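Render this sequence as a predicted structure.
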Amino acid sequence: MSFILKYKSIDEKRDLPDDDYTIKDLLNDMDLSPQTIVSKQNGDLVIEDTVINDGDEIQLVQIIYGG
């Protein structure tokens, strides 16, 4: 079981560690803060508690703050 991860220059297939692997788990594994990332699953915006399924495309978008 695997999913596609897209983040900045990353576009790769990754194995799912377990059946309950969430967006939050992925962000933790990548040392990314959920406060600075917007997550999409198969093109739809999702929350951190969303479970990643086999074959999903997960896109992480960095939020840029400015002023």
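Summary. The two ends are 42 Å apart (CA to CA). Residues 23-29 form the longest helix (7 residues).
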